[in-house]
## 1
Amino acid sequence: MNRKKLVVIGNGMAGMSCLDEILKRRPDFEVTVLSEEPYYNYNRILLSSVLAGEKPLDEITINSREWYEDHGITLCLGSRAEEIDPKNKNVTDQNGIVYPYDLLLLATGSNPFVPPIEGVNKRGVFTFRNMADTKNILEYGAPEKQAVVIGGGLLGLEAARGLLNQGMRVTVVHLMDRLMEMQLDLTGGEFLKREIEKLGITVLLNKSTAKIMGDGPAAEGVLFKDGSMVPADMVVVACGIRPNVELGKKAALHINRGIVVNDFMETSDPSIFAVGECAEHRGKVYGLVAPLYEQGKVLAATITGDKGPMYEGTTLATKLKVLGIELFSAGDFQAKEPDMEVVSYQDHAFGVYKKLVIHQDRLIGTILIGDAQDANRFLEIIRKKEKVGDKRHRLLFDQPPAVAGSPTDVMSRPDEDTICGCIGVTKGQIVQAVREKGLTSLSGVKACTKASTGCGTCSSVVQSIVVAVAGSKFQEEKKEVLCGCVPFAKEKLRNMIKTQQLKSVQEVLDIYGNGTGCSFCKPALSYLVDEVLCGDHKEDRSARFINDRVHANIQKDGTFSVVPRMRGGVTSPAELRKIADVAEKYNVPMVKVTGSQRLDLLGVKKEDLPRIWADLGMTSGYAYAKAVRMVKTCVGTDFCRYGTQNSIATGIELERLLEGLYTPAKVKMGVVGCPRNCAEATVKDIGLVGMEGGWQVVIGGAAGKTVRAADILVTVKTSEEALEAAMLFFQYYRENGEYLERTYDFVVRLGLEKIRRETIYASEETRRGLMDRLNKARAKTVNPWLEESARPFHPRQFHDFVLPKESEALIGSLT
Amino acid sequence: MIPAATREKIYKWYAVANVSDLPLNEGRRVYFGLHEVALFRLPGGFRAVANRCPHKGGPLADGIVAGNSVFCPLHNWKVGLQCGTAKPGAGEADGAGCVQVYPVKVMNSIVFIAFDEVSSERENS
C-alpha cells in the first residue's frame, strides 16, 4: 500500500477548492493539510460582511470538520510550515514535526503589506486579512470611535464600510490620486469618491502616511508627510497584499514576485505545485477569487496525471461589495495605447459613469459605476473576444434580447463557469439543482445552493439560469395578491387605502374585493387600514379574529386566557396580590408563568373577562394578538455583577414606546445587559444587546418553529440611539411586512442592506417620517381592557344568551 | 330550511335576544337546556347553527363571519350558515362535516329560535 503522500500547505480558499477538485478525480492520495490559522476552511471574501455585521463569524465556514473527516484528510490546525527540504521531500512545521511528501501543494496565499512607518506596532493598529484580524477589529472598535483606514483600494473601502456599520467615524486615506486605482481611471475614481462620501466616510487622497502617533502604547492619530494629521482611535492598514513566497524561497523554487508556475501550474520543482495568490503565472499574480478556481481545476488535472487542461490567465473583473454602491471594472480599462478607443457616458447628478474600451473592434475593458447591471454582458463580450462590428453604436445602452442576462446567453457558458464568486457556485451546480430538485425560483436556488447569498450581485444571472432551465414553470419572486377575495398586492392596497382614505375593511372589500372577504383577508385588511391611517381608521370588530374582539386568547375548549402587561418582566407584591385574588375569585383553573416573563390566567370564561380586567386594573399584555407582545429583560446593571448596561430600564422604556400597536405578525423583544444574553435577545424579533460602551440592535431572531439568530442592524453608543434604531425598524416592518410574515422571514426577504438603507441610514426626512407615523399611531392606542367600562364597542360585546329552562314558547308550535 | 329528517318533530319558537343585542356580522352563544347554539346577525338576517364545529368542537359563535359562512376560530373550518355544511379552510387537511341548522325568525325586533321539544330535553346528537 504505497499511497502517494500529498501535503497541502495552506487551508484557505485556493488550497481547499483545489483540493476539492483533486478529490473529485478520486486519486489514491494520502492527504495532509497544514493550516497556520486555527480554523476550518472559511470564506475569506465574506470577512468584510462579518465586519459589516451582515454575517456572524461562524456562518462563513466553507468546509466543516465533517468534510475533512469524510475525505480522510489529516488536518493540522495551528501548524505553520517552517521548512521545506525538496531533496528529501519533507516539510517541517514550527513544532519540529516532519511531514514527508511525494507531492507538495503550496497555497500559502499572501500577506498584508504593511508600509515601514513609525508606530505601526501600536495598540489599535490592525491589518484586515484573516479571521483573527476581523475578530480583533470588532473587539477593539466601538461606536463613535475615530477609525482611519490607510489604503483606498477594494479591501480598504470594504473595511471602511464595515467600520461605519459598527457606528464608527471613518476616514479613508489613500496614497494615490484616486480610489481603487487598480480598477478605475481618474474619472471613475472621482465618481466613486463622491459615492463613498455620501455614505458618510471622509476620503483623503494624495496622502502619504508618515507616522502613527500616540504618546502611550495606543494609536491616537495618523500624521502625513504634508504635515497634516487625523485623530484616530484605531487604524486599519489595507495597503495591498504581497504573495507569501517565503517557503518557496526555502525550497529554492523559481521566484519572481510570486512562485512562478507554468500553464500546468507546475513550479520549477516537478514535485511541487502552487495555486492562488502565492503563484505567479505569465508574469501575473492574482488577488481575486475567480482565477484561483480556474487555477485549481487545472492543477487538479496536472497533479492527478492528466496533463490536458492548461491555464491561460483570467480576464480580471472586480465588483466592489460595498452597500449602496454599484461598481464593476474589468479588463484593460485605461486605454493608454493610441489605437484604443473609448466610448463613455457620465451623469454626475445620478452618479452614473460607464466606460468601454475598444481595441481593433473588440471590447477589451470596462468601468461601470452607479449602474452595473450590464456587468455580466460586457464581461462575456470581453472574454469571448467577440468582434463588436455594427453593434458598437448601441453597445452601451441597448440590451437586445439575445445578449446578456437572457437565458440563451447564460446557458451558452460552460458548466464549470463560476456564477457566484462569493460562495463559489458554478453554472453546472445551479443547473443541476434546478433540474434535480425541481426548483422554480431564485429564492429556491438561493436556499438550495447558497448561490447569490454572498454579495448578491450575481442574482440576475442566477435568475436567468432558472428561467432557462425551469422554462414555463419559472416563478417570479412573489408579489402575491393579498387574498383571492381582494386580488391586489399588499403594496397596491396600501396606496389605495392611503390615497382614497378608505377607512374600514368593508369599504376596501366593497370597492376592490368581492364584498364578503374571508377569515384571512378580513384580519389582514383590519391591520392594513389601522397601520396605513395610523389608527385613524374605522374599527370593525367583526373583521377581527375573536381574540381581538374580546382581548383574550381563545383556548381549545372555547375558554380564554388572560395575560396582563408586565413591562420588562418586572412586577410588584401589590400586582401579584391582585392577580392571586382574581384567580381565586373567578376560579381560574390554572395560573402559569409564561415564557415571556409574565403570568397567564388560563381557562377563563368569556363573560368573566370584563370583570376580571376591572378587578386587575392592569393593562392588556396583548398576548392574544398580532401585535407587540413584550420585552423580556435580564437583571442588568441594577443587580447583576456582570451587567454592563441598564437592561431593565431600557427594556421597560422600549415596551412603553411600542406597546398597544398592531404588527403584521407578533413581535417579541428582549433587552440584555451584556453579551451573556440571559434574556435571549438574540433570538427575538427585536433585541438590544448591551456591551461595554454601547448597544447592539439586533433584528429578525426567532426561537419558535424556526430558530434563527438575529442579525445586527447597527451598533450604537447610547440607549437613546438604540431605542431609536429599534423604533425605526419596528415601524419599517409595520409598513413593509406582509400580513403574518414574522421578522425572521421579513429580514431575509428584504435583506439587511436594504433594511439598513431605508431605516437607520435613510435620509433625515425618511427617518423622521417613520418616527412621526409611529408616534401618531402610538398616540391613538388605548388599553383595550378599559374599553368595556370606558367606551364599550357594543353594549353587549361579551354577552351570551342563556334561556331559563322554564322559558315559554311564545308563538306555539311550528309544523 | 328545515332538514327533511327532522321535519316531523315538534318545534316551538323561543325568544332569545333583541335584534340590537348583536352587532352586524358577529355571533353569540345561546344556551337553552341541552342546546348550545351559535346565533349570527348577517346583513340579510339572522342565522343559527349548533355551536360545535364538526372538526374539533370549536365554538362557531366566536368565528369570523364572511358572506353566508363562518370560519371556526380554532382551525379555520368554513361552515355554511344556510345549510350547515362544513369543510376545512384553505390549506387545511381534507375532511367534511355538517352542523345542525336551527330555524330563526325576527318579530317586533325580537329574535326567535325554534327548538324541537325532544332534543331540548336530551343531548343533541
## 2
Amino acid sequence: MALLEIDGRVFDVDGDGFLTDPQIWNNEVAELIAKADGIEGMNDKHWSVIKIIRDNFEQHGNAPMIRKICQETGLKLREIYELFPLGPARGACKIAGLPKPDGCV
Amino acid sequence: MKSADNKKRREEALELLNQAENSKLLTNLNACVRCGLCAQSCMYYKALNEPRFIPSAKVDLVSSIYRRYYTVTGKVAPALFGAKSLDQDMEERMVDLLFGACTMCGRCVKHCSIGVDIPFVVRKGREMLAVMDMVPKSLQSTVDAALNTGNNMAIPQEEFVDTIKWMEEELVDEMGDPEARIPLDETDKELFYTLNPREPKFFPLSISAMAKIFYAAGESWTLSSKFYDVTNYGFFNANNGEAAQIAGYLYDEIHKLRGKRLILGECGHGSRAHKWEGPNYLKKGYDFDIITVVELIGEYIRTGKIVLDKTLNSVKHTIHDPCNLVRNGGLVNEIRFIVNRSVSDLIEMSPYGDDNFCCGGGGGSLAMSEYNDRRLKIGKIKADQIAATGAKVVITPCHNCVDQLLQINHTYKLGVTIKTIAEVVADALVIEKRIKD
Amino acid sequence: MRLVIMEWYKYSALIAASICLATFLYRLIYLISLGLPKDLSKESGSVTKGIIYSFTGAMSPKEKESAYLHLPTYTAGVVFHLGIFSALLFFIWTVFTLFISVETPELLSVVLIILLTLSALSGISILLKRVFSEELRYLSCADDYISNILSTSALIATIILLTVNNSEALYFIIMTTLFLWMPLGKTKHLLYFFFARLHLGFFYGRRGAWPKAKNRDYEIS
C-alpha cells in the first residue's frame, strides 16, 4: 500500500501505482494518473482504449486481450504502444483504474 | 490455535535446513566467511547502499538459523557463532530481503571470493517462507493463476484461441500466403512451442515474429491452446509442490500432443525452471528434447533454414543478457551469434555477458508490487548501462526483462526500443514468396 | 625415534592438532561420500570441465570483482592465507623436530619470518577493516573477530618462536587454541571452500556456462 499524490489529490495505490480501490475511478482520476505517467492531455484514441479496458473490467473483472482493444478501436498494435509508452498493462490498465494484472507485466 | 499453527509451520520450515545428506546445502550454509567483498557485485547494495543488502547478509539470514538449530556450537553459544532464532522479526527480515531484495541473478556468485551459491541459499530461505505461508501476495497470486488456469495471467482458453486466430490472419496478410499458419493443438509435430502469457495478452508482436521465423524455416510446429505458458513462478515463490505442478502441465501436454521437442519461448526463468529444474521437480528425466528458442534460431541459421540480411536492422543495437539464460544458462555466445547475423551495428554494454547486470526485475520482483520502488531504483544501474552504449534498440530474449526495460526506459527517459530476439531476427528475414503461380 | 618426556603445552598442541585433523578428515570423508548432487536434467555442457574451470580460470583475479575491485584487501587476503598455510606446515615441521633432532635451516627461518610478518600485518589490516567498516561490522559476529585474531596470533607466535629463545610455551599454547577453534569457527571454510567450488563447477559446467567461452567465439561458428 502506498499513497499517490497528483495535483493535490491523494490516492491509495499498490506499490506499482495501481488504484487500490478501482471503484473510486472516474475520467478525472484517469487523467490524473495519465498525467503522473507523463501523458499530458489524453486524446480520443487514448480514451477509446481506456473505455474498452474499463468496460471489460466492469463486465468480466479483468483486463481485455490486446486483440480486443485493437479490433474494437481499429488501432494498430504499434499505435497502442505509442499511445501508452508503458504498454497496455502498466500504462493503459493503470489509467483505467484496474488492479495490476498478474504475470510478467 | 493460531500460535500452535505458527509453531508447526516454523518447525516445517526449519526441517528444510535439516538435510545432512545434502552436500550442496551443507556446503553453502557453512562456506561464507562474511568478507563482504560481494557487496559491490549486487545491484541492491550498489543502488541503495545499506549493509543489509549485501549478498553475504542475505546468506547469513539463512545460515544463522541453520547454526542455531543444527550445530552444537550454535546451540551452546549462539552469540559467539552468530546463530539466530527463527522468530517473527527474523521472518520479516527474510521476506523483506530474500523476496524483496534479491533477483537471484547470481552475479555475486561469480564474484564471491569463496564461491558460495548465494541464490541457492536465498531460494532455500524462500522455501522456508513458502512453507510458512509468507510469500508476498502479488507473487503468490501469479502462481495461483498458473495453477488454476494453466497460465499465469489467467487468460481464458477461448480468448487465447481468438488471439492466435487473429495473429494468423495477420500472418497470412503479411506473408501473402493463405497457407501460412499458427497451428494450435496439432499432434505429432516436430516442435511444441511455448509462450509467455504476456505475449497473447498484451504484446503479441513476438508471436508474429516467431510465426514468421517458423514459416520461413518451413517448420512443423504447434502451440497448445491450454498449456502454452513457458513461465514457472513456482521457481520464484519456492513452493516446490506448486513448481512441480506447473512443470507437469507442460510435461503432460507435450506427451498428449506427441511433440518431439519442447521449445522454450523467450523467458529467462521459465527456460531455467523447465529445462534445468523441471526434471528435478518432477523427479524424472524428460523423454523429449527441451531447448530454448535461442538455440533453435541458432540452429536455423547454421543449417541455412533461414536466411538473414543484417542490413535490414541498421540502427545501433545492444544486448541485455538475461541472467537465467546467460550467467546461469551458458547462452552468452549463442545469443551473440544470432544477433551478429541479424543486426549490422552492435555495441556491447559494459559490463556484458556473464558479468552483465540483471535488468532489476528478476527473481519474481516484477510481479511483486510490494517492492516496486526498489526495483526501479536498482534499474538505474541498467539504465546507465544502456545510456552509455548510445544504442537505439535493446535486444533481450526474455519477456520479463523486456517489461522491466520498458519501465526503465520510461522512468529514466532513455528513448530506446526494446525487442526480443525473435523480433530482431524476423525483421532481418529474407523470405522467398511461396505462392504458386 | 626416541621417547621424549615433553612439556604439557606440547602435548596439548599435539592433542588439539589431532582433534582438529580428525574432525576435518571426518567431514571431508563424509562430504566425499555424499558425492555430487543428483540432477535429472539433460547435461548440455561438461561437469568435469566446469569443475576444473571452477578451481582454475574462475579463480583468476581478472574474473572476480572481489579481487579486481578490491586489490588491497584481495592482496592482503592472499598473503594472509599463504602465511597461515606456511605456519601450519611449519607446525608439522616443529612437531617433527620434537622427535628427531634436526635444526630448522637458517634460510627457511629467514624466508618464513619475512612471509609471516607480511602475513600477520595483512591479518591485522583485515581485522582493522572489519572493526572500522560499518558494512563489515554489520555482517560480523564474534566468530569473525576470533577467527582472525587466533590465526594472526598463530602467525605472530610462529615469528616469535623463530626469533626469540625459550618462546615455545607461548607458541604451543596459541597453536592449541587455534587448532581447537579451527573446526568450530568460520575457519572451517578451509574445507568447505573446496566443496563450494566443486558445486559451482558442477552447476555451471552441466549448463555449459563454465568454462567461460572465449570472447568472440561466435564469429568463428
## 3
Amino acid sequence: MKKITVDPLTRIEGHMKVEVMVDNGEIKEASSTGTLFRGFEIILKGRHPLDANRLTQRICGVCPASHSTASALCLDDAFGIGGKITDNGRIIRNLILGSNFLQSHILHFYHLAALDYVDVTSVAKYKGDDPSLKSINDFIARGQLFPFVPRYEGDYRFKEEENIELVDHYVRALGMRMKAHELLAIFGGKMPHNVGTIAGGVTSKVTTDKIVNFLWRAKEIKEFVDNIYIPDVLKAAEVYSDYFTIGSGCGNLLAYGGFEQEGNEMLFKPGMVSTDLKKGNVDALKITEDVKSSWYADASTHKNPAEGETIPEPGKKGAYSFLKSPRYDGKVYELGPLARIAVNYVSGDEKVKTLVDSVLKKFKAGPDKLFSVLGRHAARAIDAKIVVDAMIEWVQQLKPGEPSYTQCDVPDEASGIGLTEAPRGALGHWITIKGGKIDRYQVITPTAWNASPKDDNDQPGPIEQALIGTKIKDEDNPFEIVRIVRSFDPCLACSVHLVDYKGNEIGVVDAGC
Amino acid sequence: MAKDTKTAEYPVIWLQGAGCTGCSVSILNSVSPSISNVLIDEVVPGKHVSMRFHATIMAGSGEVALKVLPDTKKELTGKYILIVEGAIPTADNGVYCELGDKTLLEVFKDMAKDALAVIAIGQCAAFGGIPAAEPNPTGCKGVMHVLKHNNIKVPVINVPGCPVHPDWFVGTVASIMLGGLDIEVDDLARPKLFYGGLIHENCPRRPDFDKGKFAEKIGDEGCLYELGCKGPYTSADCPERQFNSGINWCIKNGSPCHGCVEPEFPDKFSPLYKKIKVKE
C-alpha cells in the first residue's frame, strides 16, 4: 500500500491534514487530522457571560455570525429570556446569520472549491474586451501565476470558453460575497465579527433606510444565486457527473434546525435522515464524544458533552487529531447543507422538494445520488436560495421604531443551551454560570462531526468514510481526495478546541518559544 | 511569454497560526483596490503582489503547496514579505499548530530569518489576541515577541484589529511599495496613518459624552462609555473609515467599542460590556 499525505489541505478554513493508504489505485484507509488547538473553552472559564458572545465569534472568521447566534441563544436561555426576544430582535438575528450563509456558500463554491475543477490558465487564450478577463490575461502573460499555480495537474474538463466564463464568475463572486458582508453590516455593525447579535436581541435599531438598503442588496445577491451560482453548480455537475457517485460518505444526516420564524416555526427543521429517506427526531442527550483517536486523555471518552472532561495529551499513542469524535447514539452522522435540505425534503417542505426534484430530474438520478460530492454542492446552492428568498421576506417584516433589544440581567447561577444551523451544519453552544461568571462553556461545531477521526469502536468519521473506497486515477495529482474533502466545506478552526474543562491542570509548559 | 518586463513583483508568503482566518476574510472586503486588483493587477503602477503562499486561497495542496516555502526562501532570500495571521503557539515546543510535519513555530522562524520584512496582520499576530488570553493554554505569542526571544532581526510592522480593516492592510502594503519600509509607526509598531488618533476623540457620540448624556442600556441614545465602551483607550480610525465599504461600524451600530486594536484586548478590556479604568 502507498501512503498519500495532503498537508496542508488548503482552500478550507483552518489547518487540516489528510492521509490515505492506497492499494491498487483504491483508498483503503483514510485519516483526517486537525492540526491547530487553541483551547477556547479554557479561555472562557471565569469570564463575564456576556463576553462569551463576542469571544466565541472569534472561533471562526468565516462563520462568526453562527457562533454569535448560537451564543446569544445560549445566553438568552440561561438568562431566562428565551421567549422574550422582540420580533425585530429575532428577525435581525436571522438577517445577520443569513447574510453570512450567503457569503460563506458563495465563497466556498467559487473561491475554495472551484479551482479543483476550473482551469484559470485558459484565460491566456482570451481575446475579448472584458476588462476583468483582460487583466487576468495580462496577469498570466507576466508569468507569475501564484496563487493559481502550482496546483494538481490533469483532470480539468471544462471547455476553454466554459473555463473563461467560470473564471469571470470567480471574480464576480468575490464582489458578491463582499456584498453579502455589506448586507450583514447594515444591522451587524461590521463583519467579520459582528457586534449586532447579543443576549437579549440586537444592538441595532430598525429604520426604513436600512430596510430598503438591505432589501436591494439582498435582491442583487438573489439574482446572482438564481442566475449564476445555481446554473454553475449544475454545469459542473454535467461535466463532472461521475462525482454523483464519488464521496458518498456515512449515509446518515443530522440537523438541529435554525432561523426561527413567526410562530416559532423554523426555516430549517430539526431532524435526522438516512439513505432510506425516513425522518427521525434529534435528542441532544444521545450525543457522545469519543477520544480514542484524539490527542486527549482517555479517561474522558464516550461521554455526553454536558458531562465531558477533556485534557489535552499531544503525542498520545494511537491518536492522530486534535478533533474529537462526536457521535449520535453511537452512529456516525454528517452535518451541513445536505443534511438541512434532506431533512426539509422529508419533512414535506414543498419549495425544497421542488428544487431538489428538479435537480435530480435533470440528471435522471434518484435521491441516493445526493449522498455525493456533487450532491453536497447542489444542496449548498439550494440552501443559499432558500435563505436569500426568506431574508427578502423577513426584512419586510421589520417594524421601524419598535425595540430590537430586551433588557436582561446576568443570573448568579444558571445553565443554557443554544442550538442553531451554521453554513456548515448544526452548531451547539452550552453554558454553565456560577457566581455570575462562566463556569463551563462548550461548543460543538459541524466540522467536529464531519472531520472527526475514528471513534472508540474504530468507526471512521464522515470525511474518512467518504474517502475510503474511492479510486485514485493519478496518485501524484489526487484530485479525488481534495474534491471529496472540500465538498464538506470543512472549518477546522471551528472544530478544534477543548470541549470541556473542569479546572484540571493541562500540563502546559512554556517552552520559551 | 512575459510581455511586460517592467512589472516589479512583490513576493508574499502568508502564514496562518492560531487564528480564525477572519483577517484573510476581511481583506477580501477591500473596496478600492478590490481583492482581485490586489492579487491580479498592479496595485500601484508597475508593482504587483505575488501571493506565493496563502493556505486559504492557493490552488495547490500538500507537497505541491508546501514546496513553495523552501523554493521562495532559496530564490528570493531577503526579498519576500512574510505576512503572519494568527498567534504563534509556543508551549510544548509549538505542538499546538502544525504545518506539513513541522510546527508553525519552526516554519515561522525559518521563513522570518530570510524575509525582507514581517507584517503581523490582526490582533493575534500582533499581540497574541484571544488565543493568548488568560490562561493562554497553548503559550500563544505575537510575532514580535517570538522574533525577539529568538534573536531574529527583521523589520516588523503590526497591523492589529479583530479583524484587521482591509484598508489598513492594503494601505500598509501600498506604503511599502511606494516608499519602502520606512513607515511612520507608533510605539506599538502600528502605522500612524491608521492608528494615529483615539476613537473617543473622533466619535460621533463625543458631544453626548461632553454633555454628560450616557446610554444606560443597549438601544439608548447617548455615549456608550457606561456600557463599557473602550473608545477612550483605543487608537484607530474606525469612526471615519467605518467597515464593510463604509456602511457601518461598532459604535454606529449601538455597540460599545471593544478596543480590538490594542494589546489590552481582550484581558485588560474585560468584561467587555463594563466600564473599567485601564490606562490613563
